[in-house]
Design brief:
Strand order of the largest sheet: 4-11-10-7
CATH superfamily of the largest domain: Cytochrome c-like domain
Number of strands: 13
CATH architecture of the largest domain: Orthogonal Bundle
Oligomer: single chain
Bound molecules: heme C
Number of domains: 4
Distance between the termini: 77 Å
Largest sheet: 4 strands, mixed
CATH topology of the largest domain: Cytochrome Bc1 Complex, Chain D, domain 2
Radius of gyration: 36 Å
Mean pLDDT: 91
Shape: elongated
CATH class of the largest domain: Mainly Alpha
Helix content: 25-40%
Structural class: alpha+beta
């Protein structure tokens, strides 16, 4: 039997080599009674045959990224081709483009792509007996993404810690209220240039979301005063936030130091970690966040600059993000120019303001009493208030009794829609509301009531409404909205 089996192999090999072969009947006999002596008969001549390999599993198209190491086994672990004869297959790979950074050894492709393009790849399997088969597939090389190449930052960090705040922000005795007193910066987290720089990178980094699709800046857009033009913002898996995104300029000057429309975060340091962990917004645990950031090369040096060593902790993420958010001070609007020109005298802002803007300002701080809630020259609310929106007892109750905080009115002209639910599309709609629609409810702020207790609707003429809107537009700070130090560091030029 052993001998016969050996013979069988040899015959098969001869057939494959394409030579005429002798097929002995003994091979058949061997399946019979082993005690029967093998007998040979007349040899039969068969034609030479070799079956070519065939494609068994097509190679799927691949994607790679410029600048990122890539390896791929185009044989798919030896399953791309099959050979019915069981031949050992030899593989070769060709590319339709050269100088791509990719090379192949056998069916194994590797290298770091140096171009962004689509390469047609051909893998060929040869059976060693003159027959072969090929399959084509594409490798699409995407351009290097900024997140992989890292942020571009100035050699000397921008100045965040010591911004050139005007006297009406820093002087405790400034007219229209003491801004300095309202600063919610805690002693243990003062703004440093390196800390805010790290905060800026984190703020714009989509790595802070579970699937790398959403950054803080996705919902807080600089040109919109760090808010979102959508009524509700879209999180990492397409879900909607429960409320409208808040503008972040001058958030530092909310004296009560609590954050969100309903003040549910006791500090900014606590607030900034919540969107990261929110199941709609970014969807990471803090442990996952730390693990992700540790793996990203550009963070080590940024943490070291900010905190003295490269250890990545969620607490440090919180401190740095808070520093960046607090650095978003907006103080270079037409209002500030007018304040400086008028030395803070509210009657003389028309040294810079148009007559209409001055009339609007007079309404804002006079009959409108708007500045009782949207206070100081930073235009930040002083507390949570019920401002008479039509909410109802089953609607969003905010901090309780339908009280909400308002972000600074700075840059509201580019930061709508307005209110916690984004119900008003324009500032004109907001002014219409204060003029005509303030609703009575048991918790309406006394600041919005007449002496007899009825809701105070300003009943403005069309001209007065336009005046008030014109004033609100003087709070727009183009420098802030375009300042490179607050911009996306991942946008390479
Ligand atoms: C998916 C959209 C979205 C993302 C992502 C997002 N935010 Fe927000 N942000 C909001 C919304 C909506 C609110 C208001 C929520 C509320 O009050 O219930 C808000 C509120 C805030 C506030 C409160 C402002 C104030 O004056 O009280 C701060 C600060 C803030 N976000 C910072 C951040 C930071 C930092 C990040 C990234 C770590 C971030 N946000 C990510 C949508 C988003
Ligand atoms: C009793 C305090 C109070 C008074 C007075 C007041 N507001 Fe408000 N304002 C608020 C509160 C609270 C909110 C946020 C309410 C919400 O979102 O539910 C708000 C929101 C706004 C907003 C939208 C802010 C945003 O980012 O969505 C604008 C604009 C505004 N007020 C302008 C005015 C003007 C103009 C006046 C004067 C005619 C005025 N307010 C009077 C408390 C007040």
């Amino acid at each position: 039997m052993v001998l016969l089996t050996g013979h069988k192999i040899k015959v098969a090999q001869q057939i494959k080599r394409g030579t005429a072969a002798v097929l002995a009947l003994v091979l058949v006999a061997c399946n019979g009674d082993s005690s029967t002596p093998a007998t040979t008969t007349t040899p039969t001549t068969v034609p030479a045959t070799n079956n070519a390999p065939v494609v068994n599993i097509q190679v799927p198209d691949q994607t790679a990224t410029e600048g990122v190491a890539f390896t791929f086994d185009a044989t798919q672990n030896g399953t791309t081709f099959s050979d019915s004869d069981g031949d050992t297959l030899a593989y070769s790979v060709t590319f339709d483009l050269t100088d791509t950074g990719l090379t192949a050894t056998g069916g194994e492709i590797s290298g770091t792509p140096t171009i962004a393009d689509t390469i047609v790849v051909t893998i060929t399997a040869s059976d060693g007996n003159g027959a072969s088969a090929s399959d084509n597939f594409l490798i699409t090389i995407n351009p290097a993404t900024a997140a992989l190449t890292g942020p571009s930052l100035p050699d000397t960090p921008f100045n965040y810690a010591d911004q050139d705040l005007p006297d009406h922000f820093t002087n405790p005795n400034a007219n229209l209220g003491n801004v300095d007193r309202t600063d919610n910066t805690p002693n243990n987290n003062p703004i440093t240039d390196a800390g805010a720089t790290l905060g800026r990178v984190l703020f714009y980094d989509k790595s802070l979301s579970a699937n790398d699709t959403v950054a803080c800046a996705s919902c807080h857009v600089q040109e919109n005063g760090f808010s979102d033009t959508a009524v509700l913002s879209i999180g990492f898996e397409g879900g909607e936030t429960g409320r409208h995104s808040m503008r972040l300029g001058n958030a530092r000057y909310y004296q009560r130091g609590r954050f969100f429309w309903d003040e549910r975060a006791a500090t900014l340091e606590q607030q900034v970690l919540q969107p990261i962990q929110d199941s709609v917004e970014m969807g990471l645990t803090l442990t996952q966040l730390e693990a992700k950031l540790i793996d990203i090369d550009y963070y080590g040096p940024l943490f070291e600059d900010a905190f003295g060593d490269d250890q990545v902790t969620s607490n440090r993420v919180s401190l740095a993000l808070s520093q960046f958010v607090r650095s978003l001070t907006t103080y270079q609007s037409k209002f500030d120019e007018a304040y400086i020109a008028a030395s803070g005298n509210p009657n003389n802002f028309d040294l810079v303001f148009t007559a209409q803007e001055q009339r609007g300002f007079d309404l804002f701080r006079g009959r409108g009493n708007c500045d009782s809630c949207h206070s100081t020259s930073a235009h930040v609310s002083d507390n949570v208030h019920n401002n008479g929106l039509d909410i109802g007892t089953t609607g969003d109750q905010g901090a309780g009794n339908q009280r909400f905080k308002a972000p600074s009115l700075r840059n509201s002209s580019v930061g709508g829609p307005f209110m916690h639910d984004g119900r008003f599309a324009t500032l004109a709609d907001v002014v219409d509301f204060y003029s005509d629609d303030v609703q009575d409810n048991p918790n309406l702020s006394n600041r919005l009531r007449n002496n007899d207790g009825t809701p105070r609707r300003l009943n403005l003429s069309a001209g007065q409404k336009a005046d008030l809107v014109a004033f609100l537009e003087t709070l727009t700070d183009e420098t802030f909205l375009t300042d490179p130090k607050f911009s996306d560091p991942f946008l390479q030029d």
